[in-house]
């Protein structure tokens, strides 16, 4: 996880100034329009947002998706055509926003973090998704092409579920629910990684395992930063008084809130487990060190009396009776070997090694 900083061009500008704060990209912005009701469906890529204006005059639901935030002109056009306040566009361009929901007189503004897991790099991909809900209109802003909304598009195409029979508020709920469901998949990947790390800790704790533990800890923190503010945002939406959210949609928002709570509980549980894994590693390393120190202590203890004997007979005194004895040398060796064996046997009996 990288710690983000706002672009320095943002400093000193007035509120509502449109400056893209995020990953710099150069490809063309992709615009998609999906217009539907119970009987009719139209899906097409559009070259400009002006092509979506005629659909706003119909009672059908229109979903305009904008992939790419680096083209400021596109967002300025969206603001003019759809009546979006410059402060909302400013927050949309600042991709370091925390998840939130803001209510206005004629629209709802929602920001959330869409997460995905790159199995090859084993890292979490974080992308900000902003949504503007108006009457019969939902506008979604994404940083780049590719999202977790394909199942929603398939349900719209096949006319499954309530989406084709409901308004844009239910469509916004469905998109939010897809984002939250992806959190469960990411937690499943992280759970599998935790199991492997636990096995490595129990068999052969190495420094590389510690690096993986800290990496896992950062990834859990990234999920936590995405889901914790979202709980507050959904709570605000559930208890809000916006006329854009129908009463039948509130029931589904309650279910979404329950899913968010489940993700939060799982994240907190996994964070405690990761902290326990780090303690387990430190304990394993400490036990290893204690084992080595115990063996060294036993060896040093055995050689203390032997060193004493060797030191005594290494003194350069002229009159030492044992020096004139024929068997003095082998006798001293027998004494030292005997002392070593006796002490080693006693330590073995005490289970010190």
Give a verbal description of the structure.
- The protein is α+β, with helices and mostly antiparallel strands and 353 residues long.
- The chain has 2 domains: 8-283, Beta Polymerase, domain 2 (2-Layer Sandwich), CATH 3.30.460.20; 313-349, no CATH class.
- Helix content is 52%, strand content 15%.
- The protein is built from 7 helices and 7 strands, in the order βββααββββααααα.
- The protein has helices at residues 72-82, 86-93, 150-158, 168-203, 207-238, 247-312, 328-349; strands at 30-36, 41-46, 61-67, 100-103, 108-118, 123-134, 137-142.
- A 7-stranded mixed β-sheet has the order 2-1-3-7-6-5-4.
- Strand 5 and strand 6 form a beta hairpin.
- The two termini are 45 Å apart.
What is the level 1 CATH name of the largest domain? Answer: Alpha Beta
Secondary-structure element pattern, one letter each:
EEEHHEEEEHHHHH
Rg calculated over all Cα atoms: 34 Å
Query: How far apart, in Å, are the first and last alpha carbons?
Result: 45 Å
Count of separate DSSP helical elements: 7
Strand order of the largest sheet: 2-1-3-7-6-5-4
CATH topology of the largest domain: Beta Polymerase, domain 2
Tell me the count of domains: 2
- The proportion of strand residues reads 15-25%
Main beta-sheet annotation: 7 strands, mixed
Under the CATH scheme, which architecture of the largest domain would be assigned?
A: 2-Layer Sandwich
What percent of the residues sit in helical stretches (DSSP H or I)?
Answer: 40-55%
CATH superfamily of the largest domain: CorA soluble domain-like
Mean of pLDDT: 85
The total beta strand count reads: 7
By secondary-structure content and strand pairing, the structural class works out as: alpha+beta
Low-confidence stretches: 1-8
Shape: rod-shaped
